[in-house]
Amino acid sequence: QLDLEDTSAIADTLDRLAPHQVINAAAYTAVDAAEADGPAAWAANCEGPRALARACTERGIRLLQVSTDFVFDGESAHPYAPGDSTAPLGEYGRSKLAGEQAVQEECPGAFILRTGWVYSRFGSNFVKTMLGLMAEREALSVVQDQVGTPTWARGLAAALWAAVERPQLTGVYHWSDAGVCSWYDFAVAIYEEGRALGLLNRPVAIGPIPASEYPTPARRPAFSVLDKTASWRDLALEGVHWRRQLRAMLEDMQEHMDG
Questions:
Q1: Per DSSP, what are the bridge partners of residue 22?
Q2: Which of 11, 37, 172, 205 is 20 to 30 Å from the Cα of 5, by its Cα?
């Protein structure tokens, strides 16, 4: 672990490990908490990456920075391309966008990869939250008017590794799985796949609701689908539909539970 707020620790770690490239996936990702805890979000999402980028540049190290779909306002009628105008709605998105800009200022050759709706069998995420709620409740209501694309962390890791193997790539790229869905669609798919695999053993009624019925401190983009065309081309990767990735992740989860 490395505290990005400790500039001396950054320097010492880079000097000790002497990496050729560094992937920074660390972030303050509590979107709602960031509204009340802006300084912490900015320290982790902007100033930390700035210090890391500066240290990398001083040592000739390439930096790969993970960013977010929350840099957009969700008003677009088409998937967001890397060069589209940004307009974050809250402190989290603003701090991440400022982090992108800081990284590019300090490390012009950096590779920035925006993503969103990330999940895996590890940590806290939408898929694991839904599975937990579906095991406890008879009915759930899930927002249907926020649309994006889920991203299995394993696919994101593969994209980052492909970028590592292509050090000539610089600038901003986008990554998620293929396809489009709402949070409601995603929840229904989690239920259907979970039932099919035996991870869920009883029926659950899932109903759609508008975001207005589920108020949160932070505004979220209503549409955050990312255009991955450049990533698929330059990283030589094929987009895999989010539903296939979801099932693969749940199969992976089941395998480790059985083991």
A1: 63
A2: 172
What number of CA atoms fall less than 13 Å from residue 154's CA on the CB side? 14
Query: Would you state the pLDDT for residue 1?
Result: 80
Instruction: Supply the residues annotated as catalytic.
Output: 92
Question: pLDDT averaged over the chain?
Answer: 96
Domains, the chain: 7-258 (3.40.50.720)
Chain centre distance of CA 4: 19
Q: pTM for the full model? A: 0.95
Helices (DSSP H) in 3-146: which residue ranges? 7-17, 33-36, 38-42, 48-59, 91-106, 126-136
* CA nearest to 31, candidates 80, 96, 85, 87: 96
pLDDT digits (tens, 9 = 90+) for 169-211: 999 999 999 999 999 999 999 999 999 999 999 999 999 999 9
Q: CB within 8 A of 71, min separation 6: which ones?
A: 86, 88, 93, 96, 97, 100, 114
